[in-house]
C-alpha cells in the first residue's frame, strides 16, 4: 500500500506541476493576480506531495519491504538503520527522487520567502521551476520508478554496495544535490527575466542569496565527497579528476563566477547580460553533470545502472533546457539595456577578470571531461584523460586568479587605483616572501614549486585580512573605534574575507600534500615495524570481528612517535556475504591537521600482510578550507542587506527593454 | 576612454586568456592522454614499447603468481589473446581470477606489460565498460552476463 501511495503522490505532484507550468504564465500575461498567486500554492503542494512520496520510499527501506524492486536491489534487513535510510539515495531511482525532492523544496522556498518579489516575476520563476520539475517527474515515472513492485517478494535483499555503506555517503549526495539543484533557481530567475525582458540591479539582489545558498551546499558537498573518496576508496587521494568529480566541479566554478558577477550587477548595474548567461550556464552544467552521472556513459563508482532509455531521456531534458535557455538568451538578451561603465582598473574589472579565469578554467575541465566521450563516439578510440591533463591546464589558470584575488576587494568601484591597492598589500607581499624563503630554508627542497605555492596561499590569506584591517582602521585608529567599525562592517565583507581565506587554506593543504606526502607499500609479519616521516608503526597481529552484515579482518598497529606510543590504528578488510564483496577500510590517525593513513592489502601465504601507508601532511586543511569557504558564504548570506532589503526596482525605466 | 576602447580591452583580455587556455589544453592533450587497448588490439596494432596505455580484459584463470615484495604477475585475456602483466603493489579488493580488470602502464620490449596501476571493478555485478567492449569485440561476451557495465574506483 505504501509504495502505491508514494507513487500516486508523485503522479499528483506531476499534475500540480503541469498546472504550475502553465497557469502562472497566462496569469502574468494577463495580469491576472489569481492565476499568478496560484503558483505559490501549487509550489508548496508540490513539495508536500514529493516529500510524502520520498517518505513513503524511506518507509519501504526502513521496513525492508523487498516486494519493491529497488529495495530488494539495494537493501538488506541486516543493515543498520542509518544505512537502510541512506540506501534510499544510494541507487539511481532513489537518488532521482531526492533530486526532485530538492527541486520542489527550492520551488516551495521561493513561494514561501519570495514575498518581496514582483508578482509577475515570481509567477514566471515558479513556472520555469515547474517546467524543470515536470521534466524530472516524467523521467522518474516513465523510466525509473522507485516504487516498482516485484511479482514475488524475495525473502532477503541484495544489499547496498558496501563501499556506499558509509556515513560520508549519508551526507554527501543530499548536500551536493542541494547545490546542484539550487542553481535551478538562478536558472529560473534568468529565464523569467528573459521572458519579461526586464532586468535590473534588484534582480541580482533577489538571485544572489539563492545562488549563494546553493554555492555553500555545493562547496561543502564537494568537500564531503572528496573526503569520502579519500578514506573509503583506499587510494589516499583527495581528488582524482574523475569525470563525476568534474561534473560537480564545473557547476561550482560557474556558480562561483555567477556569485561574483551578480555582485557587480547588484552594486553597479553592469554585466547584466553576462550574469544572465552565467545563471543559465551554471544550471546547464548541473544538468550535464546529472547526465554524465546518471546516463551511464561514464565508468564510475557513481554509475549505479544504465538503461539506454534513461540516457536518452536525460539527454532530451538536457537539450530542451540548455538549448531552450540559450536560444531564449540569444534572442532576448540583445534587447536588454546596457549597464554601467567602468574603467579597466576597477573593482568591476577585477571581478571580470575573476569571471574570465573561472569560466576558462571551467572550460578546460569541460574539454578534459567530454573529449574522451566525443573521441570515442567519433573514432571509436578509447582514451582516458587523467590528472596530468588537468594539472597542466587547470592549475596555470587558477594561479593568476589567486594572485588577483586580494586586489579585488581593495579596489574602488568604477575607477580603481592599482598602485594604491598594491601598496596596501605590501604586508601581504612581505609575509608571502618571508614564507617562501623560510620554506626553502626549512623544507627538504624536493619540490621547487611548493614554497611558491605556500607563498601564494599566505599572500591570499593575508590579502583577505588586509581588506578587513583597512576597513576597520586596524593599527591606525584607537582600539575602541576599531571595535565600533568592526561591528558596523557589513557581514558580507567578513564573509568575503573568510571565503577568500578558505580558498587559501585549501590551497595550503593541496600544496603540502602534493609536495611532501610520503608513501610506503610493504609486507609485514607480526611484530615487524615500518617507519614513515618520524612515526614508527609496529604490526601487533590480526583480529577477526563481525559487524551487523559483514565479517571483518582487522590488523592492529601501534603507532609510536620518537619511541612514545601515540595510538593504535586498525585498518581492516570487510567481507559482505550478501554481495560476496570485500571492502578495504583504511585507518586514519589525525595528528594536528596531518594524517597517517593505513590501508590493508592482501594477506600473504607466509603470514605477512601487505599494507599501504601514507603520511599526509596538512591534508585536513583541504577540507577545512572548504568548510571555511562555506562559513564565509553563510556569513555573507546572513547579511542584513539580503535579509531585510526588500529592494524596489529602480524608479526610472532604466531596466526596461530597449525595444 | 570611450565605451568602445573599454570594450576592446575587455575582449582583448578575454581572447588572451582563452588563447592561453587553448594552448594549454592542446599541449596537455598531446602529452597526457592514455589510450585503451584490448589484448587483441595490442597484438594487432604493434604498438611501440614504452607507450603509456591502458589494457583491459579478464584476469586469466590460473595465471596469478605472487612473488616477494608485493610482486604480482598475471595474464589479461580477452579470450583470443593473452598479455602477460607485471605489477608491484597492492591489488584492489576485487582483483580475482576470471574477473574484469583494467591496468595502466607501459609495454616493455619483451612483450610484458608493466603496470603501475591496476583497477578492478568495484562491485561484483558490474564490469568496467572498456572490458565489456573488449570482450564483445572478441566475441566472448554473452548478453545478460553481468548486465551492467560500469564501476571502478576512479
What are the key terms here?
heterodimer; A: 659 residues; alpha+beta; 6-stranded antiparallel β-sheet; 11 strands; globular; disordered C terminus; B: 154 residues; 5-stranded mixed barrel; 3 helices
- Biggest beta-sheet profile of chain B: 5 strands, mixed, barrel
Q: Over the alpha carbons, how many angstroms does the gyration radius of chain B reach?
A: 21 Å
- The helix-strand sequence of chain B is HEHEEEEEEEHE
C-alpha end-to-end distance of chain A: 57 Å
Rg over CA atoms of chain A: 27 Å
Q: What is the count of DSSP helices of chain B, taking H or I runs of 4+ residues?
A: 3
The fraction of residues assigned to DSSP E strands of chain A is: 5-15%
Q: Strand share of the residues of chain B?
A: 25-35%
Q: Give the uncertain stretches of chain B in residue-range form.
A: 143-154
In DSSP terms (H or I, runs of 4 or more residues), the helix count of chain A works out at 21
Overall geometric form of chain B? elongated
Mean pLDDT of chain B: 77
The two chains with the largest interface, and their residue counts, are: A-B, 61 and 48 residues
Textual characterization of the structure:
Chain A has 659 residues and is of the alpha+beta class. Chain A has helices at residues 2-30, 33-62, 69-74, 81-86, 92-113, 119-143, 167-196, 201-232, 243-268, 272-294, 308-332, 347-379, 387-404, 407-410, 418-424, 426-442, 449-472, 479-488, 491-516, 620-637, 640-643, and strands at 382-385, 518-524, 529-532, 535-546, 551-561, 564-569, 572-576, 581-585, 587-591, 594-603, 609-616. In chain A, a hairpin with a 4-residue loop joins β4 (535-546) and β5. In chain A, α1 packs antiparallel against α2 (33-62) and α9 packs antiparallel against α10. Chain A is globular. Mean pLDDT of chain A is 88; it is low at 649-659. In chain B, β1 (33-37), α2 (39-45) and β2 (52-59) form a beta-alpha-beta unit. In chain B, the strands form two sheets. A five-stranded mixed beta barrel of chain B has the order 2-4-5-7-6. Chain B is of the alpha/beta class. Chain B is built from three helices and nine strands, in the order αβαβββββββαβ. Chain B has helices at residues 3-32, 39-45, 129-137, and strands at residues 33-37, 52-59, 65-66, 71-77, 82-88, 100-107, 113-120, 126-127, 148-149. The interface between A and B is large, with 61 and 48 residues.
Amino acid at each position: 500500500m505504501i509504495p502505491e501511495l508514494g507513487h500516486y503522490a508523485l503522479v499528483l505532484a506531476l499534475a500540480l506541476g503541469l498546472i504550475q507550468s502553465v497557469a502562472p504564465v497566462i496569469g502574468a500575461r494577463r495580469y491576472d493576480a489569481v492565476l499568478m498567486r496560484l503558483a505559490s500554492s501549487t509550489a508548496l503542494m508540490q513539495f508536500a506531495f514529493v516529500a510524502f512520496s520520498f517518505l513513503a520510499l524511506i518507509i519501504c527501506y526502513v521496513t525492508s519491504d523487498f516486494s519493491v524492486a529497488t529495495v530488494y536491489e539495494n537493501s538488506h534487513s541486516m543493515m543498520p538503520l542509518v544505512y537502510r535510510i541512506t540506501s534510499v539515495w544510494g541507487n539511481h531511482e532513489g537518488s532521482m527522487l531526492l533530486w526532485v525532492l530538492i527541486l520542489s523544496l527550492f520551488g516551495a522556498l521561493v513561494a514561501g520567502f519570495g514575498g518581496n518579489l514582483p508578482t509577475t516575476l515570481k509567477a514566471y520563476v515558479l513556472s520555469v521551476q515547474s517546467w524543470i520539475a515536470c521534466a524530472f517527474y516524467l523521467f522518474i515515472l516513465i523510466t525509473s520508478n522507485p516504487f516498482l513492485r516485484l511479482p514475488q517478494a524475495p525473502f532477503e535483499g541484495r544489499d547496498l554496495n558496501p563501499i556506499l555503506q558509509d556515513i560520508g555517503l549519508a551526507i554527501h549526495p543530499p548536500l551536493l544535490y542541494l547545490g546542484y539543484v539550487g542553481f535551478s533557481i538562478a536558472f529560473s530567475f534568468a529565464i523569467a527575466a528573459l521572458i519579461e525582458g526586464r532586468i535590473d540591479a534588484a534582480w541580482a539582489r533577489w538571485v544572489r542569496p539563492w545562488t549563494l545558498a546553493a554555492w555553500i551546499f555545493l562547496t561543502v558537498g564537494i568537500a564531503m565527497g572528496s573526503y569520502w573518496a579519500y578514506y573509503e576508496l583506499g587510494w589516499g587521494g583527495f581528488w582524482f579528476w574523475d569525470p563525476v568529480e568534474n561534473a560537480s566541479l564545473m557547476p561550482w566554478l560557474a556558480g562561483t563566477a555567477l556569485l561574483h558577477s551578480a555582485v557587480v550587477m547588484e552594486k553597479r548595474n553592469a554585466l547584466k547580460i553576462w550574469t544572465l548567461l552565467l545563471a543559465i550556464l551554471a544550471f546547464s552544467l548541473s544538468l550535464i553533470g546529472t547526465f554524465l552521472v546518471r546516463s551511464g556513459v561514464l565508468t564510475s563508482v557513481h554509475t549505479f545502472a544504465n538503461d539506454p532509455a534513461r540516457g536518452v531521456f536525460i539527454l532530451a531534458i538536457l537539450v530542451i533546457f540548455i538549448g531552450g535557455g540559450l536560444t531564449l538568451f540569444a534572442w532576448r538578451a540583445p534587447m536588454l539595456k546596457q549597464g554601467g561603465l567602468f574603467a579597466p582598473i576597477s573593482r568591476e574589472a577585477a571581478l571580470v577578470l575573476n569571471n574570465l579565469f573561472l569560466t576558462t578554467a571551467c572550460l578546460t575541465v569541460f574539454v578534459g571531461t567530454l573529449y574522451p566521450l566525443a573521441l570515442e563516439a567519433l573514432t571509436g578510440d578509447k582514451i582516458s584523460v587523467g590528472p596530468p591533463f588537468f594539472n597542466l591546464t587547470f592549475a596555470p589558470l587558477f594561479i593568476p586568479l589567486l594572485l588577483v584575488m586580494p586586489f579585488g576587494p581593495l579596489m574602488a568601484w568604477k575607477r580603481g587605483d592599482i598602485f594604491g591597492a598594491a601598496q596596501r598589500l605590501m604586508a601581504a607581499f612581505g609575509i608571502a616572501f618571508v614564507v617562501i624563503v623560510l620554506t626553502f630554508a626549512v623544507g627538504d627542497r624536493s619540490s621547487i614549486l611548493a614554497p611558491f605555492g605556500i607563498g601564494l596561499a599566505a599572500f591570499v590569506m593575508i590579502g583577505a585580512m588586509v581588506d578587513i584591517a583597512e576597513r576597520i582602521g586596524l593599527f591606525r585608529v584607537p582600539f575602541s573605534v576599531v571595535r565600533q567599525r568592526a561591528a558596523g562592517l557589513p557581514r558580507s565583507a567578513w564573509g568575503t574575507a573568510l571565503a577568500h581565506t578558505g580558498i587559501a587554506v585549501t590551497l595550503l593543504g593541496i600544496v603540502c600534500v602534493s609536495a611532501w606526502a610520503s608513501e610506503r607499500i610493504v609486507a609485514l609479519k607480526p611484530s615487524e615495524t615500518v617507519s614513515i616521516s618520524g612515526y614508527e608503526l609496529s604490526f601487533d597481529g590480526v583480529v577477526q570481528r563481525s559487524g551487523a552484515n559483514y565479517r571483518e579482518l582487522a590488523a592492529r598497529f601501534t603507532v609510536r612517535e620518537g619511541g612514545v606510543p601515540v595510538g593504535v590504528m586498525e585498518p581492516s578488510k570487510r567481507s559482505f556475504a550478501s554481495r560476496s564483496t570485500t571492502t578495504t577500510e583504511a585507518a586514519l590517525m589525525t595528528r594536528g591537521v596531518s594524517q597517517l593513513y593505513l590501508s590493508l592489502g592482501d594477506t600473504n601465504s607466509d603470514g605477512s600482510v601487505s599494507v599501504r601507508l601514507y603520511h599526509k601532511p596538512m591534508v585536513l586543511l583541504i577540507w577545512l578550507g572548504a568548510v571555511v569557504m562555506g562559513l564565509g558564504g553563510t556569513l555573507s548570506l546572513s547579511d542584513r542587506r539580503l535579509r531585510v532589503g526588500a529592494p524596489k526596482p529602480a524608479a526610472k525605466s532604466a531596466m526596461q527593454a530597449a525595444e | 576612454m570611450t565605451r568602445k576602447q573599454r570594450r576592446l580591452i575587455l575582449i582583448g583580455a578575454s581572447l588572451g586568456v582563452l588563447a592561453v587556455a587553448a594552448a594549454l589544453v592542446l599541449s596537455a592533450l598531446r602529452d597526457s592522454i592514455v589510450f585503451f587497448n584490448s589484448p587483441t588490439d595490442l597484438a594487432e596494432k604493434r604498438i611501440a614499447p614504452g607507450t603509456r596505455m591502458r589494457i583491459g580484459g579478464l584476469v586469466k584463470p590460473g595465471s596469478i603468481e605472487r612473488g616477494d615484495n608485493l610482486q604480482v604477475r598475471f595474464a589479461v585475456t580477452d579470450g583470443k589473446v593473452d598479455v602477460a602483466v607485471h605489477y608491484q603493489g597492492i591489488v584492489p579488493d576485487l582483483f580475482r581470477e576470471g574477473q574484469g580488470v583494467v591496468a595502466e602502464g607501459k609495454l616493455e620490449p619483451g612483450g610484458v606489460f608493466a603496470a603501475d596501476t591496476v583497477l578492478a571493478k568495484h562491485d561484483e555485478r558490474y564490469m568496467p565498460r572498456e572490458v565489456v567492449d573488449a570482450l564483445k569485440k572478441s566475441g566472448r561476451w554473452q548478453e545478460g552476463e553481468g548486465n551492467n557495465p560500469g564501476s571502478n574506483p576512479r
